[in-house]
Design a protein that fits this description.
Layout lengths: L2 E2 L5 H8 L4 E2 L1 H4 L7 E6 L5 H12 L6 E6 L11 H7 E2 L1 H4 L4 E6 L15 H14 E7 L1 H11 L4 E15 L15 E11 L2 H4 L5 E7 L3 E7 L4 E4 L9 H11 L25 H17 L14
Helix pairs in contact: 1-3
Protein name: Homoserine O-acetyltransferase
Pathway: Amino-acid biosynthesis; L-methionine biosynthesis via de novo pathway; O-acetyl-L-homoserine from L-homoserine: step 1/1
Catalytic activity: L-homoserine + acetyl-CoA = O-acetyl-L-homoserine + CoA
């Protein structure tokens, strides 16, 4: 089944050219089915790139999905036109009385700031509080994961000596057969990271309501879940495209910043080479497991029956 998105969203043409099944609004209206309502709070500066990445991952689900794109009205994006935001995005005020099957909170390039110094922190706190009663299951990604762990559990972030940047090897450390986030995963898998701060396993383990699912010897904690699957925290960027890290690297080089070549990314660590994607299978499976086991099979048919999450 396809993702339902506006007919003129730029991602639609991109994904159709990749032979990904996307359904426009007009066709979707003729299907007698309740689609899953997924909200994407897009905190990344390159919003069109990020929305396309997440839509690409969710397109692998057999479920019909209706996407609502959200932005923070307290921060004006510098890299996305006002026209695009007004046409395709909603503010929190516009959806705060609605309920959703799932919510994705993306990363943001603000991890060097204290949470309270981020200009939209108060608004984000409102959204995360709202999600407890108006969303069945929420995925928090990269800085969004650090923000969620801090808001919901008081878990701090710590600055790194150097940027965690590249593709890193991860291993499953929780073999609980009841945890369907990991269903079908290899024992070892790759995922991209691009961040200046970290959360630490010793802080997370103080909270018995949280489970650490996967870690990396180099990149640290990767995946943390609430006991009943209504919260998932992912410290990397599984949604990244083949060239996203290259774009970030080239941008920083052009700015004259002291940036290392991304780890395990370019062949022979040569930035002139073409990176090989080694994380796409994991990324697709992660989103598919979330949509299937923690959204579709758990959320009530009547979203008005949502109870507060744990």
């Amino acid at each position: 089944m396809p993702i339902k998105i506006p007919d003129d969203l730029p991602a639609k043409e991109i994904l159709e050219n990749e032979n990904i099944f996307i359904m426009g609004e007009d066709r979707a209206q003729h299907q007698d089915i309740r689609p899953l309502r997924i909200a994407l709070l897009n905190l990344m500066p390159t919003k069109i790139v990020t929305e396309t990445q997440y839509l690409r991952l969710m397109s692998n689900s057999p479920l019909q999905i209706e996407i609502t794109l959200l932005y923070t009205w307290t921060h004006k994006p510098a890299n996305t036109s006002e026209e695009h935001l007004s046409r395709f995005y909603s503010s929190f005020d516009e959806v705060k009385d609605q309920k959703f099957d799932g919510l994705i909170i993306t990363g943001a390039p603000v991890e060097n700031l204290e949470f309270e110094d981020v200009d939209y922190w108060d608004e984000l706190k409102q959204i995360m509080k709202w999600s407890l009663t108006n969303v069945y299951s929420t995925i928090h990604v990269c800085w969004g994961a650090q923000a969620g762990l801090y808001y919901h559990y008081g878990i701090p972030k710590y600055p790194l000596d150097s940027k965690m940047f590249g593709i890193f090897n991860h291993k499953i450390i929780n073999h609980n057969n009841n945890n369907n986030f990991l269903r079908g995963f290899d024992e070892v898998f790759n995922a991209p990271h691009s961040r200046h701060t970290e959360v630490r396993i010793e802080d997370i383990e103080k909270h018995p309501e949280l489970e650490v699912l996967a870690t990396s010897d180099d990149a640290g904690v990767y995946m943390v879940a609430g006991k009943h699957g209504r919260h998932l925290f992912v410290t990397g960027h599984p949604e990244y495209d083949a060239l996203t890290l290259k774009t970030e690297y080239d941008r920083d080089v052009n700015k004259g910043l002291d940036i290392a070549v991304p780890n395990n990314y370019f062949p022979n660590d040569d930035p002139k080479g073409m990176p090989q994607v080694t994380w796409r299978g994991h990324a697709n499976l992660l989103l598919l497991n979330w949509l299937n086991y923690y959204v579709y099979q758990q959320t009530p048919f009547d979203l008005g029956q949502l109870a507060e999450s744990d």
